[in-house]
Amino acid sequence: MIKNLKNNILWMMLNIILINNLNGQINIYSHRHYDSDKILFKKFTEKTGIKVNVVKGSADQLIERLINEGENSPADILLTVDASRLYRAKMANILEPIESSILNNNIPNNFRDPENYWFGFSVRARVLIYSKDRVKSSELSTYEDLAKAKWKGRIVVRSSSNIYNQSLMSSLIEANGSEKAIKWAKAIRSNMARAPRGNDRDQARAVASGLADVAIINTYYIGKLKNSKDSKDREVADNVAVFFPNQNDRGTHVNISGGGLVKTSKNKNNAIKFLEFLSSNEAQEVFGNINYEYPVNIKNNKSELLKSWGDFKIDEINLSILGKHNSKSVKIFDEARWE
I need a surface site. Which of 22, 84, 134, 193 has the fewest CB within 10 A? Predict the structure, then answer.
């Protein structure tokens, strides 16, 4: 009798240990591919004892995978770049809203879904970079100004299939309406020094080489060029300067990298703990110092490189709007034959 009781207690204790081990982990589907994330995963595990497992892929692949896996998905969190993709995930019914006072306090309203299905954790501004030798900062002003004839043959920017450009277009639709957005897209295409090609770093290289005078790129790519192991890339960063457009009206377009809780998560409490950790001051500093992204509270930026570009006013629209206008943005780019 006593022996059976001891055995039952032992089995109960083993079950508790097994359950704790099973629950002591989170599974993240991530579009992000940065060293900063590896550091954050390690820090989170050290703080909480919760193991982080990561599956990588493109945002579209991961969203499609979550849809196909349904209830059988092992994923707890979806991490990706660009608010439009997070909006897409919400519309696909694969995310679940989170009630967290920590996230609500740490993440500004414009950087999270109005219904708390997703949250931004780092910010990148889509700025103008220009040749220090051939352009004066006083010549630059707004995104809209780039449509003027004086910039004919002087602009480079990547393909319209890129989500960053689609979100910029969505912000222009919101600010100026579709009709003006179409005219802008056609004028920018006409003012390009070459057909769209390459990534954002390639646009900066084109400006530094003299092929163009101005490019539209995300700020953190300048940080990557500045800190590259390749001396040629560091030289590119030294030969261009950053300009924040639209400072006298709505502000510079910004976007986020963020995440949300997968609806079918088996480790919801741990997953929410991780998302809350990403909003902490400790994690926010890692985004800036390692990946050159702004914290969600931009004024709290601690990165000296980001500080060197100066303070700037942001366009404060709720970023869910970027997702709402995405299909319209794609149609406008097609009509403008942006490529």
Answer: 22
